[in-house]
Specification:
The chain is mainly beta. It folds into 2 domains: about 60 residues, no CATH class; about 190 residues, Jelly Rolls. Strand 8 and strand 9 form a beta hairpin. The longest helix is centred in the first third of the chain and has 24 residues. The chain is globular and about 75 Å long.
Length: about 270
């Protein structure tokens, strides 16, 4: 481990030295950041009008370092882990259960204790195999962002359903760009980037928006959400919504399973 760290340190030092040589050859002057971080950059470059910093400015705030998960589904270091395979302590009391380190949906909904606004969400879900229930209810569940805006969970690998009710649809509003469903019994992933609606003086200033990847495939990109979702309704924002509300998984008496749930407030 020490040898690896030494190699990395030497590589960084060599890279900085090469950068300094190249800059000197071009007549440019590399300077260090004022905060003592050791970051190098330039102060003799044009100022970017949209932020006020120089091009390649060493004093521009650096991105916070976040340790990624050990796998694509693993929670990063700054995530709120909503389920790690052990218990439902991050959720309000319900009739949902934990079996084999997985959540099994039961009657009613599963709702977080904590409230969230803008966020990134990762979760994995599995529709039962063989399918359970009537065709209109197979693998039926949902991710209710702020408890109001549903990204549909459904077995649309085997079950035809109206396009704005397919898996990964913004329910009752916008179908996914493609049907990326896997077979029932196989694990599926949702990666969701959500921006909450903004209200000013009791009026809608900007609607909610969502980007969704289903099994790694982009199915919504910065998609407007036209109001709280529902069955057989025309969505609208008819009253102000708090900036933060709990996340809900919407049960429909179908034993959909979940694992690896985490969320990053944005």
């Amino acid at each position: 481990m020490k040898r690896s760290r030494l190699i990395v340190a030497l590589s960084v030092a060599i890279a900085l030295a090469l950068l300094l040589v190249c800059a000197t050859a071009l007549g440019a002057v590399l300077v260090k950041a004022k905060d003592g971080s050791g970051i190098v950059g330039y102060k003799d470059t044009p100022v970017l009008p949209w932020c006020g910093y120089h091009v390649h400015d060493p004093d521009r705030p650096a991105p916070k370092r976040v340790q990624p998960g050990l796998s694509n589904s693993g929670a990063p270091s700054d995530a709120v882990v909503l389920f790690d395979g052990t218990d439902l302590s991050k959720w309000q009391p319900s009739k949902w259960t934990v079996e084999d380190e997985e959540i099994v949906a039961g009657p009613g909904n599963l709702t977080t204790k904590e409230s969230f606004g803008d966020c990134q969400i990762h979760l994995e879900w599995q529709a039962p195999n063989p399918p359970v229930g009537e065709e209109w209810d197979r693998g039926n569940n949902g991710v209710l962002l702020m408890g109001l805006f549903e990204i549909q969970i459904f077995d649309t690998y085997t079950t035809p359903l109206y396009p704005d009710g397919q898996a990964a649809s913004v329910y009752g509003q916008t179908p996914p760009l493609v049907n990326a469903c896997r077979k029932p019994g196989q694990w599926q992933t949702y990666d969701i980037i959500f921006y909450a609606p903004v209200f000013q003086d009791g009026r809608l200033a900007s609607p909610a928006r969502v980007t969704v990847l289903h099994n790694g495939i982009l199915v919504h990109h910065n998609q407007e959400i036209y109001g709280p979702t529902g069955h057989r309704i025309l969505a609208k924002y008819d009253q102000p919504i708090e900036p933060k509300r709990p996340l809900t998984l919407s049960g429909h008496n179908n034993p959909v399973r979940f694992r690896n749930l985490w969320l990053r407030p944005l």
